[in-house]
Specification:
Layout (H helix, E strand, L loop, with lengths): L6 H8 E2 L6 E2 L16 E2 L7 E8 L6 H14 L4 E8 L3 H7 L3 E4 L9 H9 L6 E5 L2 H14 L3 E2 L4 E2 L4 E5 L4 E5 L4 E4 L11 E2 L2 E2 L32 E5 L6 H11 L2 E4 L1 H5 L20 E5 L5 H4 L7 E6 L5 H5 L2 E4 L2 H14 L2
Helix pairs in contact: 4-5, 6-10
Length: 352
């Protein structure tokens, strides 16, 4: 008669002690290391060629579009090339190294768009890049066209698909596609190329180029942060929304003010007149393009989830572990919103 297996005891025997997370060694004896290994970093001194990417980070953070632009440059560079990031902002080199950049050159963001191509060319001169990648943002698209005109380089705008040998973009009023070798300057819409998911690169800082002569050109002032209440819901970077599980709207409004979040709501809340119709999130309301969405007491109907298509991070506070919003969220708090809101308010007030 065969003895019964005890899976819990078998798993306990396979556990490797030490480290931040348990590891299983199912074959042979477990070898315990001295501790967690340092993360690998790829460092290159003299690549076969360089690919440049202009990274916009005015608020000190790399958003999804910026990381995808660096990822596109990494695709063009391949294993033999290096990526140099021209940073128009204040993001750290570590973040750019994780995004795939080998070198980082800071740019002065206080100059006008007419002087930016000259500064970019001065920053690119030591590298002589094979390609220059920019995001098709209002600023990036303008810089790309000015740079191409100033340097006399060919440009491909709105590239939809990209590889080291081919760039595909729509032509003829979006009715046809044209495939060609990647041009010297390329612009990318959002969500066309994946972010770099490989080993972290060095992200070594290089000297900033000299500021071009003023010559009476237009200057750009400092970025002034708008109040959360004044930002349209479709453009808000941080949205905090109320659902049927929220009863104390006085606390909800106080918390949104302290967090600096733009307020949203589910359709049920707007139909009840508890929030204005302009705050409705979903297919019949506003489709968000936020970095973070904090949902209090929202179950997550399909129409509501359609409004979160472009949101990077979703945080859900709900009593139902199996709610659809919890499945969509990257972080969930399984608790009553009425208990979580005052706790967050106390924490924020303690921090000043």
């Amino acid at each position: 008669m065969r003895a019964r297996r005890d899976p819990r005891a078998e798993r306990a025997r396979c556990l490797v002690p030490g480290g931040a997370r348990p590891r299983l060694a199912r074959a042979g004896e477990a070898v315990v290391g001295a501790g967690p290994r340092e993360r690998a970093v790829i460092s290159i001194e003299a690549p076969a060629f360089w690919v440049a990417v202009v990274v916009e980070a005015p608020d000190g953070r790399l958003d999804r579009w910026a990381r995808q632009s660096v990822g596109a440059a990494r695709v063009l560079a391949g294993a033999e090339g290096g990526v140099v990031a021209l940073l128009a902002g204040t993001a750290g080199g570590d973040a750019l190294g994780e995004a795939g950049a080998d070198r980082v050159v800071p740019l002065d963001g206080g100059i006008g768009p007419d002087a930016m191509p000259e500064m970019m060319l001065a920053a690119l001169a030591p590298f002589v890049p094979r390609h220059v990648v920019l995001a098709e943002t209002p600023a990036g698209g303008d810089w790309a066209r000015r740079l191409a005109a100033r340097a006399g380089w060919p440009i491909q705008t709105g590239v939809e698909m990209l590889s080291a040998r081919q760039a595909i973009r729509p032509v003829g009023g979006m009715r046809r596609e044209r495939a060609a070798a990647p041009a010297r300057v390329l612009t990318l819409p959002r969500d066309r190329v994946a972010s770099h998911g490989g080993t972290r690169r060095e992200g070594r800082w290089c000297p900033a180029p000299e500021r071009p002569a003023d010559r009476g050109r237009m200057r750009v002032g400092p970025v002034v942060t708008a109040t959360a209440a004044g930002i349209p819901l479709a453009e808000a970077p941080f949205v905090m929304a109320a659902g049927q599980g929220v009863v104390d709207f006085e606390r909800f409004h106080a918390l949104s003010r302290l967090l600096g979040a733009t307020e949203g709501a589910s359709r049920v809340v707007c139909d009840a007149g508890l929030m204005p119709r302009a705050a409705q999130v979903g297919a019949s309301g506003t489709v968000l393009d936020a970095r973070c969405y904090l949902a209090f007491g929202i179950a997550g109907a399909p129409q509501h989830l359609q409004g979160l298509g472009k949101v990077e991070h979703v945080v859900a506070v709900n009593t139902d572990l199996h709610a659809a919003i919890v499945a969509r969220a990257g972080l969930s708090i399984i608790a009553d919103a009425q208990a979580v809101m005052p706790a967050l308010l106390d924490l924020l007030r303690e921090e000043g």
